[in-house]
Amino acid sequence: MTEKITLGNGIVAIVTENPVADIVAARLFFRTGSAWETYPQAGLTHLLASVLAKGTEQSDAYTIAERIESLGASFHADASPDYFVVGLKGVSPDFATLLELAAEVVRSPIFPEEHVDLERQLALQQIKQSQEQPMGIAFDALRSLIYQDHPYAFSQLGTVETMGTLQREDLQHFHASYFRPDNLVISIAGRIDTPTALELVEKYFGDWVAPAIPIPEMVLPPLSVQPKHQDIPQNTQQAIVMLGYLTTSVHQPEYYPLKIISTYLGNGLSSRLFVELREKQGLAYEVSCLYPTRNHPAVLTTYLGTAVANQAKAQTGLKAEVDRLAQQPLSAEELQITKNKILGQYALGKQTNAQLAQSYGWYEVMGLGIEFDHQFLHQITQVTAADIQTVAQTHLQQPYTVVVGGSQSP
Q1: Where in the chain is the domain with CATH 3.30.830.10?
Q2: What angle do CA 295, 373, 77 make, to 5 degrees?
């Protein structure tokens, strides 16, 4: 059973009672993320997540870590393009203590200068390492081609230039702007009854007053399809070929056919791209398709790694497999197998209390509502082969192309 309640200060609380294991998990979702960054501050939310639990007005980093470890609990913070999340999990008797700590961390972090400096340096090392990986280079280039000035173009880590200039004051300002009760979803799942969970949320967060000023409004540039190609020469034994198609957000009806397309093309060893391009033709060391769920237009990306000598042939083959979807409908068997794969993986993703807390909180913070849990399953089952062909004809005709390490495009 899952219930949703809105507190007087605007916090949305979601409780899922699941007494199977003596564990309670929670996710604190803030409606902000890297999409709220401007380019000069790209990487800010990653840095904020890294230092959020490194000190509060009440406790230093060591004390916080000791409190978590003494309970045998887990505690983490992560930033994504569309949200920021703090996760915690522990045995039921310790949940109140953990939630109290979470309230302290998200409400009164101080971002100690020495920890900001350390995490900034670690992030800069990660950025430099990613710049040496052909796959990472290809993804960065593709995002830049498609999104241009849109914040989805930015790497979660930012760049050497932007990460290098971020300061403690930037974190403080971002936190003050977006970490507030009327911008927060708290999702709790496990061996805890709803009245007790709500009582704890009220106890530790109920006195948190939202600022009088409104939450800063997100302003995003318009996006349009203007296909481009980019070659990035590298002296490597393998070429990365990547095709990206600007499609739709999770809020559009095309989302469901696109999820099926992505799964059909690139999910697992039985996927179309793996079987055709790797197993039958031997053109790919690795091959896949990605379609992330986003609040704003997402990119469906197909990619493969191939021998440099096979780059032109592999690129042609990769595009041909996507083009085939617009020309030839999936068979009834292909469609049903793909649907079964999606529905099975969806069920497997909600087995633990941590997964339940993540799922229901994610539905809410993305603006889908907890009813999306049933809506998704229904909508997937309703997709027809004709729907998939129509979506392919509408959205998968004009790819952006990036080749790293290979020859010029055919």
Answers
A1: 2-205, 229-404
A2: 55
Q: Do residues 267 and 165 lie in contact, with contact meaning Cβ atoms separated by under 8 Å? A: no
In CATH, 2-205 is 3.30.830.10: yes
Q: Which pLDDT band holds residue 235 (cuts at 50, 70, 90)?
A: confident
**Position 410 pLDDT exceeds 60:** no
pLDDT band of 357, cuts 50, 70, 90: very high
Helices (H) and strands (E) counted in the chain, each on its own, are 15, 11
pLDDT band at 209 (very low <50, low <70, confident <90, very high): very high
| The pair of three-digit structure tokens given for residue 383, joined into one six-digit string | 């997709």
Residue of 285, 279, 287, 276 whose CA lies nearest to 306? 285
Q: Strand pairing of 23-30 and 12-17?
A: unpaired
Q: Which residue has the tokens 């002296």?
A: 235
User: Which residues 6+ apart lie within 8 Å of 54 measured at CB?
Assistant: 61, 64, 109, 111, 112, 115, 119
pLDDT of residue 406: 60
What distance in Å separates the CA atoms of residue 272 and residue 265, rounded to the nearest whole number?
A: 5
Show the DSSP H helices in 248-310 as ranges. Answer: 255-266, 272-273
Start-end of H helices in 1-158: 44-51, 61-70, 95-107, 113-130, 134-147
268: left (phi over 0), alpha (psi -120 to 50) or beta: left
Indicate the burial class of 292 (C-beta count within 10 angstroms; 0-12, 13-18, 19 or more).
middle
Between CA 332 and CA 295 the distance in angstroms is: 31
Residue 409: predicted pLDDT: 43
Q: At what angle do helices 168-178 and 44-51 cross, to 10 degrees?
A: 90
| Environment class of 371 (CB within 10 Å of its CB; exposed 0-12, middle 13-18, buried 19+) | exposed
pLDDT in tens, 72-100: 999 999 999 999 999 999 999 999 999 99
Q: Note the pLDDT of residue 408.
A: 45
Class level of CATH domain 229-404? alpha beta
